[in-house]
Amino acid sequence: MNVSRLTARASRSALVALLVATAVLLGLRSGNAAEPTPPRVLLLEVRAPITTGTAEFIEVGLARAKREGYGAVAIALDTPGGHLEATREIVQRMLASEVPVVVWVGPAGARAGSAGVFITLAADVAAMHPTSAIGAAHPVAGGGEDVEKQAGKDMARKIENDTAAFARSIATARGRNADWAEKAVRDSVSATAEEALKLRVVDAIAPDMAAALAFADGRTWSRSGQVQAIRTRGPVEAGEMTVRQRTLAFLSDPNVIAVLMMLGTLGIALEFYHPGGIVPGALGAFFLLLAFLSMKVIPVNVGALVLILAGVALLVVEGYVTTHGIAGLAGAALLGIGTLFFIDRSSAEYRFDPVLLSLSPWVVWPTPLALGGVLGFVGWKVARTRQEKLRVGAPGMIGELGEATSDIGPDAGEAFVHGELWAARSDAPIVRGMAVRVREVRGLILHVEAAPASRGVLP
Fold it and tell me: Kind of pairing, strands 226-229 and 220-223?
């Protein structure tokens, strides 16, 4: 009896030990399974002027990062500057983002120029490639002149003060050097990566984006008074621009706008030359619509636009009025001058580098000359055609040669003219088989005369 009791107790103890061991193993396994994986990082590359397309690209990226649970948004920045309102939109989204933003100015030789300064200052963590640069955010006019020379002293002061305050507020919000940020606007100062790090403009120098993310990992960021750790050790996924955003970025190239204007005006002009062609006019209208859309992306000089349209008008006049080429040459000259001053770099809403935001010489000169040549040739052909004798209807019969198919006199006769058999009359008798020339057409009767031909025209 005692033996059986001992055996039963031993069995129960072994069963309890087995259950405890199983529970411990299951707990360890479930604990390993619940270990969180590193959050992903969304990479956005900005390697162009800051435009409305860029603002939409970054805004959509920040919204996606929040919606899909990314740990951070990384922006690879290389820009000469851009539209001030688009820059404000980007900065506002970055300051209010519920996902930390890491900005890296790179790759080698990259720059955060002008508008890029504000974007870099607004980052939670900012890093630069060792050979990159940042700064030069002062408003400039055409040729690098101060806005005061273009818009007046009061307007220049207003723009400068507003932009300087904007830069200071961003730098203060992110704990960066607000004095340098203001100098970048007022004095157009710039800094290398080493200088920017010493001046507390950026947080680190990183040779690539991976190094910038490694530096950012574990640092703190705050929103609405809550301080959290940045986690950037997860996989990096690149964000792609949509077709709309790529189109806006493409249209931000001033050379593209100039070519669109030329093609649009060429199509409209060809439609004037040959009404009813439809296709040239439709394509011209389409190109002009794209050009006008582009003018909202980058600054366009209205006066230069008027010169271009006036040049096209003179080329059209050349096709309708005999000016012996004077109107055509004047039109080509206006096209060249208008294209040369097409970009309005004095606009207060833009922070583009005056050198980088310019038209290529291969667009300024060859394109207007080619357009002038094409329209001039078309105009010359139209004018020449109008001077030629009509070849249809009764007027087109005057002077045509034919052959008498019967004897022709004042009262009767027939002639083969212009591929048809006609009733013919002649003041002087004409023998069958002689060549005749049409002098006049009265109704359906040709009045002919003998032609100085030795033989007829019939085969």
Answer: antiparallel
